[in-house]
Amino acid sequence: MTGIDTNVLVRYLVQDDPPQAKAATYLIEKECTRENPGFLNHLVLCETVWILDGCYDQSKDNLIKTLEQLLRVAELRVESSHVVWKALEDYRNGPADFADYLLSRINEAHSCLTTVTFDRAAGKSSEFTLLK
């Protein structure tokens, strides 16, 4: 398995730097296989969403579609994909950021009953308890 950094994944997705995009595309489409997949950890997913939203002004719907595609590619392995799917569904239906929902679902997977936060948007979701 080959770990993929955020900058490689973003170059592959946005194709805005021709030399880096070419190298990232070759890696992901030719070198990552079902037998030797590329690995996307939680940090890479959160950073990718943050960059696509903040730097490339992608809509929430587009971000959701991108994450769904990444989760479905057999040549990529996503860390704890079952947790990421739950977080993605929360993000689709809730007011908070993807990273917030992934955080709460990781905590839940480690037997946390809730996640406390000062984030008012996250605090509106049942997965969180707003700390006052």
Topology of this protein?
Layout: E1 2-3, H1 6-14, H2 18-31, E2 38-40, H3 42-54, H4 60-72, E3 76-78, H5 81-93, H6 98-109, E4 115-117, H7 120-123, E5 128-130
Parallel strand pairs: 1-2, 2-3, 4-5
Helix pairs in contact: 1-2, 1-3, 4-5, 5-6
What does this structure look like?
With 132 residues, this protein is mainly α. It folds into two domains: 1-79, no CATH class; 81-132, no CATH class. Helix content is 59%, strand content 11%. The chain has seven helices and five strands, in the order βααβααβααβαβ. It has helices spanning 6-14, 18-31, 42-54, 60-72, 81-93, 98-109, 120-123, and strands at residues 2-3, 38-40, 76-78, 115-117, 128-130. The strands form two sheets. Strands 1-2-3 form a three-stranded parallel sheet. α7 (120-123) links the parallel β4 and β5. The longest helix is centred in the first third of the chain and has 14 residues, at 18-31. 30% of the residues are buried.
N-to-C SSE string, H for helix and E for strand: EHHEHHEHHEHE
Q: What is the average per-residue confidence, as pLDDT, rounded to a whole number? A: 97
Shape: globular
Q: Which runs of at least 5 residues are low in confidence (pLDDT < 50)?
A: none
Sheet having the most strands: 3 strands, parallel
Radius of gyration: 16 Å
Give the neighbour order of strands across the main sheet. Answer: 1-2-3
**Overall tally of structural domains:** 2
Share of residues in helices: 55-70%
What is the terminal separation in angstroms? 44 Å
Secondary-structure-derived class:
mainly alpha
